[in-house]
Every structure is written in C-alpha cells, then in structure tokens.
Amino acid sequence: MADNDALPANIHCARDYEDLARQVLKAPTFAHVAGGAGRDTAVAANLAALEAVRITPRVLRDLTHGATTCRLGGRRHPIWLAPVAFQELFHAGAERETARAAAATGTCMVVSTLSSLPLEEVTGPDRWFQLYAQPSRQATLDLVRRAESAGYGAIMLTVDAPVHAPGLTSLRAGFRGGLTPANLRDAPPVDTSLAPGEGRVFQGFLRHAPTWADVEWLRGHTRLPLWLKGIMHPDDARTARESGADGLVVSNHGGRELDAAPASLTALPAIRATMGSDFPLLFDGGVRSGQDVFRAIALGADGVMIGRLQAYALAVAGALGVGHMIKLLREELEVCMALSGCASLADIAQADLSGRPSAGGN
Ligand SMILES: Cc1cc2nc3c(=O)[nH]c(=O)nc-3n(C[C@H](O)[C@H](O)[C@H](O)COP(=O)(O)O)c2cc1C
Fold first, then answer.
1. Residue with the nearest Cα to atom 16 of ligand 1?
2. Could you tell me what percent of the chain has a pLDDT over 90?
3. Annotated catalytic residue, options 77, 91, 253, 324
4. DSSP three-state, residue 23
5. Domain 16-177+199-354 belongs to what topology?
6. Which atom of ligand 1 is the closest one to the Cα of 46?
7. What own/partner pairs with CB < 8 Å and gap ≥ 24 does 5-9 have?
8. Residues with Cβ within 6 A of ligand 1?
9. Is pLDDT at 5 greater than 80 in this prediction?
10. Mean pLDDT for the stretch of residues 60-85
11. Residue spans per domain, the chain
12. How high is the pLDDT of residue 362?
C-alpha cells in the first residue's frame, strides 16, 4: 500500500497499474486479486478472448464531433467501477478513496455488499449497490432499504456466486480472508449444520442461495432499477428479463467462480442478439485497456465494468490512482475510436472486426 498517494512517474497505460500493484501489495493480497477460481483458466480466457478481437483501421473521416457519451444515463463515458469487496486490503481509505475518484471522473461506482465501509459512508453522485442475497429475505430487504435510503441509483444482484471456492493461486500464496463486511456486522449467525448424509455444497451453501423466485420477489420490493450480474447464457438472460431485470451484466465474475467457464466476451454476442438492441447490457471480465472497452462495446455491450485494475490503481495511489486509471482508459478508448473511424459508441457497434466470437456461440 502506498504511504503517501502521488501519481507514480512510470505509468504509461492503464494496465501499468497491474505491474506496480505487484510491487506495492503483499504477495498473498496480490494473488487474491490477480487469481481466479481453480487454476485461473477462466481468467486467462477472458484476457485471450479480448486480445483475439482485432479492430480494422478506418481512415480520413471527420471525427471532430467525437464523444464517448454512453446511452445508459447519458454518462460521459461507458466505464463503471465494478463491485470489489474489502477495499481496505488495498488502501486505508478503502471505498471512500474509490468513491472520490468516481465523483471526480463522472464514473458510476458499484459498491459491494462486502465493502469494508458501511454503504452509508461511501458517498457520491453516482453509486449503485451490489447485492448478495442474504440467508433470509428480511436481511436482504434490510440491505436494499439501506441502499435506497442512502441514495443509491440501482441494485445490482450478483447471481453467479451461490458458493465460492477460493482459487489455487490465492490459497497457495497463503491469502487469508477473515475480514468482516461492515454492512453485515449485525447479521444473525447462519445455521450451517448438516444432517447425516447431507452435502456441504447442495444442502449447505445452497440452502440459502437465491433462485429466480427471489429475483421476482426482489423486483416487487424495490422501485430502484434491478440489474443482474453474472449472466453468461442467452436463456438465463431471457429469464432475467421475464423476472423483471432492467439490465444485465454479462460476466463470469472475472473468472473467479467457475474455472471452466468460457470468456465473458464469448457470451456477449449471443446475449445481445437474444435481448435485442435496446436492452441495457454491461460487460466485465478482462478489461485492461481502452481497446478492450472498444472490443466489448463492438460486441454488444453498452458499457464495461473494471474490477482488478480498480484494486491495483487504488493500491498504488488511492483516489488519485483510480481517477488516473479511468482517465487513461478513456484516452485509450478515444485513440482507438479515432484510429478506427468511430465518433460515438453507436459507431463502435458497427466497427469492422476480425477474430470476433460469433452470436451463435456460447
Ligand atoms: C478482489 C475482487 C473482489 C471482488 N468482489 C466482488 C464482490 O464483492 N461482488 C461482486 O459481484 N463481484 C466481485 N468481484 C468481481 C468483479 O465485480 C468483476 O466481475 C470482475 O473483477 C471483472 O473482471 P476483471 O477483474 O478482469 O476486470 C471481485 C473481483 C475482485 C478482483
């Protein structure tokens, strides 16, 4: 963790924050962030799928009216800060630092249920609340009501992590979590007892896991827009819309849940094709550059969320680092737009690509 936050001299692109964070963070903490589920194959797949998409240069267009305005809420740019738990691991100011960067850069910050600070203490003009369903509907509703009272703009229910097995990278590096999420300090203890013959996964963790019925129930209990995060199959996307979701995040949780999952990018075209051009879709998983932002938008996303780079920039230089990282991503996106003849995000959706995953595949 940086002692006094200042921008390091040797950052030339957003991804450079990864290398610096490796030097700044304790090895187990870096492994916890960088690693994924199992042997990190889904993490690698996310990066490789983005890299494989090549963008054809287009020339001599007048782009002086160009802008990165996002149709979701008319935001200045299409970059969200993904929910990243326990930010005290990266900076003493935790989520408060990230929120300062979000406010300064006109960025929507999605605050995790597992934040280090209580959700009421993470303030700013554009915040959504990431919800993990709790063992009882009442406890879930308590979190939703707190987020509503605190002025959050949407609820993002994460649906792809009903059970979590730490990955090998994190385990082998000796990362020990053991942190208490501030939002859940008063939560009653969960009954984890098993009857003879019952299994730890199905009858243990999954006993309290949410189902589609809970999504419908939640839809009926908040007026805030409801997003589902962690959708990878077109049929799930369709069911989500039928259950009342206002938007979806196409995501494999940064490769941190199912190690055998395909790259999030591979799932995106088919989900966009299924949902039609108007349905709000965010994307995350492997975004490390403005070119990656472009690639995701070209394949159907309205915007992208940034997970690991956020943690790295926070560790290296606090709010300044996160703000700088977003600025670099924006500039990288704009350069990529300029070189491919795109004046708007709508133009990006029509860009010429090669190596793209097909809409038929998932
Ligand atoms: C350290 C860390 C903590 C995370 N915590 C959460 C969380 O609390 N809730 C959640 O929905 N996703 C969480 N995620 C997943 C991110 O929101 C996002 O889906 C993922 O990081 C995107 O991939 P990227 O890291 O390659 O950008 C976390 C990711 C990391 C790296």
1. 307
2. 89
3. 253
4. helix
5. TIM Barrel (3.20.20)
6. 26
7. 5/317, 5/318, 5/319, 5/320, 5/321, 6/317, 6/320, 7/317, 7/320, 7/321, 7/324, 8/316, 8/317
8. 33, 46, 82-85, 112, 114, 130, 158, 229, 251, 253-254, 256, 284-287, 306-308, 311
9. no
10. 98
11. 16-177+199-354
12. 46
Ligand 1 centroid–CA 117 distance in Å is: 17
How would you write 143-206 as a 3-class SS string?
HHHHHHHCCCCCEEEECCCCCCCCCHHHHHCCCCCCCCCHHHCCCCCCCCCCCCCCCHHHHHHH
**pLDDT band at residue 4, thresholds of 50, 70 and 90?**
low
Band (pLDDT 50/70/90 cuts) for residue 165 is confident
The string of pLDDT tens digits covering residues 80-120 is 999 999 999 999 999 999 999 999 999 999 999 999 999 99
The residue whose CB lies within 8 Å of the most ligand 1 atoms, and thus the one to mutate among 134, 169, 256, is 256
Mark whether 253 is an active-site residue.
yes
Cα of 257 to ligand 1 centre, how many Å? 10
